[in-house]
Amino acid sequence: MSSLHIYNSLTRNKDLFEPLMPGVVSMYVCGPTVYGHSHLGHAKSYVSFDVVVRWLRHLGFKVRYVQNITDVGHLTDDADEGEDKIQRQASKEMVDPMEIAQAYTRSYFEDMDRLGVLRPNIAPTATGHIPEQIAIIERLIDKGHAYESNGNIYFSVESFPGYGKLSGRTDQAAVQSGGRVEQRSDKRSPSDFALWKRAEPGHIMKWPSPWGVGYPGWHVECSAMAMKYLGETIDIHGGGMENKFPHHDCEIAQAEAATGKPFVRFWMHNNMVTVDGVKMGKSLGNFITLKELFGTFDPMVIRFFILQSHYRSPLDFSNAAIKASQSGLEKLHETARRLLETRPGSGTLDVGSFVRKTEEALNDDFNTPVAISVIFEFAKALNGALDRNEGLSADAAAEAMAYLETFAGKVLGILRSREELEAGEAGDGGETLADVISVVLELRKDARARKDFAMSDAIRDLLLAKGIELKDTREGTTWTKKRG
RNA sequence: GGCGAAGUGGCCGAGUGGCUAGGCAGAGGUCUGCAAAACCUCGUACAGCGGUUCGAGUCCGCUCUUCGCCUCCA
Fold first, then answer.
1. Quick check: helix, strand or coil at residue A22?
2. Which region holds residue A391: left if phi is over 0, alpha if psi is between -120 and 50, else beta?
3. Would you identify the CATH topology of the domain A318-422?
């Protein structure tokens, strides 16, 4: 079997992955800022990293997966301008900021659960780790990497020579020349970023610190929580591409300036969801929330749609594209269902070659679209085998089902459970429905035996009108309940 | 202005120099009482212009276009 290679944003190369400690992987992914419902962009990010975790575990690694919740609002820039987004949403909804944070945290996990995203091992909140953040800031001040100015603490970018190496933005004069932020603050140098901000009157979320009452800067929370739970050097740090600069470059600077050790071994960045070619984002207002989307599409279809493109490629949203995914996924489930219901025969199928190809795809920087293409090739071969008179032997059928359950199911999370497949996707009340339909199918069978095809077709058409589709196969008649 | 990514058949979307990606939609066929499903066959795509090579969608250069980041953002 090939070995896992991961595209590392830091080296700009697909590097062979080996964890620092054999068998154990430490992984941190930037979580959401919880001031609104999650949208398709969040889904792409967290579904992608979910597959990363699932694949690492499949390979036998013990993964500790930490994903933070940013529940303290941050200003819209590193100068003293802008407003706190959580606080703004709180005044809009006339509730305490922490109510906003908690409500949207729940909303976030609800949506991720429905998408089949496994919960992180630890989901620490920024507000729960103020002392850890203060400790790092103190360390940075002691080492001369940070300074106080009017109750604000800033990181001195000049004091850290490698600043900007992740994004390639090492020339600070060039960075500032194109900037849109007005340079008017108490910073020593325009590129310096806030570690701690003094609370202005009216600011609600605030904590005491050695420098007075205030609140932490955005970048420091991730460094603090990652180091607390994963150590000073972690294996994998993931996040959205838009956070490469400044967020991740700042994280590197803080952490490495404080510890003197490399912070992250593998940086992974996922690409954006676009709408008509333009990034979907909260600030642009062109987003569609997952809760809206789930009204039209099964969450598993959304997950499948996301995994049909690579995590480092942008994914353009359109209803037509998701519909195409829906048809494809239904076809796959139909094949799996057929396999479960097949009667043992004597035929064989070379499952091993498909296993190898799928493993290769996932080992190649988690290439889910290629893995899915292999699964579809497998489905085709499987259907072909089931079409033949000799069918599949019990062993071959079991091996085929194991392949689907391992790769489509356990690793990619795009296969329904056996129970769901067997229930014909009937959903709630499935048992009653199945009983009723079996009676109707008996009657139709009688009609067909009498060659009363008018009656037989009428039954099929009437059921189809109610969303129940019948198929007459060699093994008898099967039915499926179609969604909306 | 700086840093970075990308332009693939009707649509979505892979592709790390040579052999079919895959899905959706479409056409023909097999099977079936019919239908559906399944299977078989079919489209001769790689923004443009040069270059390297026996051979390039895949490498190099230039041009055009699009997008992301440089402000909170997955």
1. coil
2. left
3. Four Helix Bundle (Hemerythrin (Met), subunit A) (1.20.120)
- What six digits make up the tokens of A403? 């392949």
Give the ipTM.
0.95
Average pLDDT over residues A335-340: 93
The reply to whether A56 Cβ lies less than 7 angstroms from strand B is: no
pLDDT band at A475 (very low <50, low <70, confident <90, very high): confident
Q: Which residue is nearest to nucleotide B15 (CA to C1')?
A: A370
Alpha-carbon span A290 to A275, nearest angstrom: 15
The pLDDT tens digits of the residues spanning A385-440 come to: 999 989 999 999 999 999 999 999 999 999 999 988 887 644 445 666 777 788 78
Distance, Å, A100 CA → B64 C1': 47
Q: Is the pTM of this model over 0.80?
A: yes
What phi and psi values does residue A31 have, to the nearest 5 degrees?
-90, -175
Strand B and A57 CB separated by under 7 Å: no
Q: Is the CB of A316 under 7 A from strand B?
A: yes
B chain positions with any atom within 7 Å of a protein CB:
1-6, 11-16, 21-25, 32-40, 66-74
Q: Which 3 state secondary structure label does DSSP give A233?
A: coil
Quick one: which residue's CA is nearest to B22's C1'? A373
**Token pair in block for residue A140:** 């940075």
Window 26-45 of chain A: CB closer than 7 A to strand B: 30-33, 39, 41-42, 44-45
Q: Is the CB of A470 under 7 A from strand B?
A: yes
- Both tokens assigned to A285: 């207002």
Q: What is the location of CATH 3.40.50.620 in chain A?
A: 5-279
Strand B: which of residues 186-215 in chain A lie with Cβ below 7 A?
A: none
Quick one: DSSP state of residue A344?
Answer: P
Instruction: Report the CATH number of the A5-279 domain.
Output: 3.40.50.620
User: What residues does CATH 1.20.120.640 cover in chain A?
Assistant: 318-422
Q: Which amino acid is at A472?
A: D
| Conformational region of residue A472, where left means phi above 0, alpha means psi within -120 to 50, and beta covers everything else | beta
